[in-house]
């Protein structure tokens, strides 16, 4: 019986042989059509060299252009916000930003690229509270994240998130089985995230969630309730697995009991 490594080696050799065969057939086809004759060959080589030069130029300038196109309090787009603090930046490209006059961002905060940041359902909507979304000082919102507020989302100072974190204060009603969920009420509950907390990659924070100060939430967790100050929580729904007290320091969940949140 062949070992797995023998089978893998055979498969790799077969793949290489197939690739070489396809290259030879393609080359012969091109020769047959005259693509390797002087005029055609020169055109192909020239186009390839032009593409390579352009690609290098775009790559070299992309980061500079990203920074230049970012939103700060010195840009016209930045002045639409209820507040966009000194040293804060919303990186380009972004996905969706609207109703900025209901959004407040503190100083030295960065919202990463490909993020969504909005207040209300549609551009131009008048919201019942202001600010609808508040992000504190020195925060970092990871790439590809979404903060979608309708009533009240309050994020404290020094809160950092991983990539692709989603925070919302509105959910979808589903109780009426005779109506599509998309046509039912959308209940709203305020969300708060305490200062100094960390939300791991893929975390989802749902309406009514209240995350305390200095809380670490593990990757891909779903927070639906209250997380106390100075704890570590993981899972869907998130549950506390470690907690700190001045008397005993950090303790694992089996020493103080754990609850789902």
Write the layout of secondary structure elements.
Blueprint: H1 4-32, H2 38-69, E1 83-84, E2 89-90, E3 96-98, E4 103-105, E5 110-111, E6 116-119, E7 133-135, E8 140-141, E9 146-149, E10 153-155, E11 160-161, E12 166-168, E13 191-193, E14 198-199, E15 204-205, E16 210-211, E17 216-217, E18 222-223, E19 226-227, E20 231-234, E21 239-245, E22 249-252
Parallel strand pairs: 1-4, 2-5, 3-6, 4-7, 5-8, 6-9, 7-10, 9-12, 10-13, 11-14, 12-15, 13-16, 14-17, 15-18, 16-19, 17-20
Antiparallel strand pairs: 20-21, 21-22
What can be said about this structure in brief?
23% of the residues lie in helices and 24% in strands. With 261 residues, it is of the alpha/beta class.
Describe the protein's architecture and organization.
The structure is a single chain. By secondary structure, this protein is α/β, with parallel strands linked by helices. 23% of the residues lie in helices and 24% in strands. The protein has two helices and 22 strands. The strands form four sheets. It has a seven-stranded parallel beta sheet, with no helix packed on it.
């Amino acid at each position: 019986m062949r070992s797995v490594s023998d089978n893998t080696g055979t498969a790799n050799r077969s793949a290489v042989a197939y690739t070489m065969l396809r290259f030879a057939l393609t080359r012969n086809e091109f020769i047959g059509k005259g693509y390797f004759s002087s005029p055609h060959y020169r055109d192909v080589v020239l186009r390839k060299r032009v593409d390579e030069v352009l690609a290098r130029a775009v790559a070299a300038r992309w980061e500079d252009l990203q920074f230049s196109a970012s939103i700060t309090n010195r840009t016209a787009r930045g002045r639409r916000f209820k507040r966009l603090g000194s040293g804060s930046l919303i990186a380009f490209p972004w996905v969706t930003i609207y109703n900025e006059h209901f959004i407040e961002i503190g100083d030295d905060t960065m919202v990463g690229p490909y993020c969504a940041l909005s207040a209300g359902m549609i551009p131009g909507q008048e919201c019942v509270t202001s600010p609808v979304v508040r992000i504190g000082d020195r925060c970092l919102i990871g790439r590809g994240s979404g903060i979608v507020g309708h009533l009240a989302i309050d994020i404290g100072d020094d809160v950092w998130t991983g990539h692709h974190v989603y925070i919302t204060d509105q959910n979808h009603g589903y109780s009426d089985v005779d109506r599509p969920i998309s046509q039912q009420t959308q209940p709203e509950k305020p969300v708060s995230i305490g200062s100094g907390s960390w939300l791991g990659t893929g975390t989802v924070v749902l309406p009514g969630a209240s995350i305390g100060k200095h809380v670490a939430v593990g990757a891909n967790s779903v927070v639906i309730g209250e997380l106390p100050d100075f704890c570590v929580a993981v899972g869907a729904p998130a549950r506390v697995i470690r907690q700190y007290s001045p008397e005993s320091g950090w303790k694992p969940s089996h020493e103080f009991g754990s609850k789902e949140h």
